[in-house]
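Milestone M4 deliverable, item 7.
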Amino acid sequence: MDVIRLAGPPGVGKSTLAQRIAQERSSTLPSVGYVDIDQLGMLYPAPEGDDDRWALKERALVALAPVHRERGTRLLLVSGVADPVAPPPETAPGRTRSLWLTAEPETLHARLQGRGWGPSMVEETVATGSAESRRRHPDWTGLPVDGVDEAQAAAAVQEHLATGAGSAPPGEGEAPGGRLADHAPSDRERRAEHDVLTTPVLWVTGPRCAGASSVAWSLASGGWAQGRRTGFLDLAQLSFRSPDGGDASDAAEPVSAEPVSAEAWQDPALGLDVLAAVAAVLVGAGMQELVVTAPFPVQPAQVRAALPGAPFRVVRLDDEPGALRERALRRRAGEGPMLAGDDLIGASDEQLEAVLERASRERAVPPRDGEETLEVHGRTPEELASLIRDGAGPSGDARDPAPGDARDEAGR
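Output delivered:
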């Protein structure tokens, strides 16, 4: 399995280009994976000596790469921030090619302002990112992307990858792209990988547009505010892999490229294995609880199988059709975080209706074993997070434990 790393300052287009290249490569490779490394290090308070959690993210990436490889991924695209002064690590047998995308401050200013950021935040981010680009480690190959559109930038990256030598496959645990030992798991992390996960898990799900990710984020933010070392993982963001299309070298026609979307590129079984690998790294870094948001089709039984022994609480949100539609319309207009695979951003009327039809079907599914249902009823994510912390039932009242192993045993 080969790995392509795209790093660089915020606003340079790392994620957009990585997703586009993943789409293009999936037309000629049977299995292409994608992950945003920033999704792997949401653990606060940060581990001691790793305030930016750069080392934590790299260890998580090293841990998940074998999962992709064992499941047949041929190429893994990785985007996101990285430590500029450290060499990029090798993440798997095969080539790891690491590019640091650069752009002039004026370009970064314009792109970040387009995200609605305030002037002071844009100025600080551009200054920091530009300084990091100037002092990047020589093993990161710089590639300017000024003055070109997305398609041209992707073509430039593809051309560079086609002509560049890249990193040689690691031999005795060392390669030009950095030593595996530099990012090897600690003794504590190795123990976590072999022991059952006993850290409490709050799992938040629900039909499309019910607000599960916002509520999960509020739960994690509440833990951070209280100084409880809380991890946050989004299962959908860990599950991107192109639909298998067979070995392109033997195919008469190339495999059709499908967009990195909420459905076509989702491999929940892969995502659950990746989640378990990343959770072990977070536990090794001192995680005290884990908050997960996940697509509705993932069954509570699958969750328990992926993280056996963990004290679980699975909360299923629900809301009225009108509220789901309103939330979908706001999302289509760009409200909320920019996440890979979001098929509502800029969706057509037909696409929006398809999402809402899916949400309607998911709402009709009876409660599954081990699931608590919580009605949104116009409450904010923060209010819902408080109700979940307090053990509230569907209307906000205290309730008996749900069937099975839904409620955790951490005293909540």
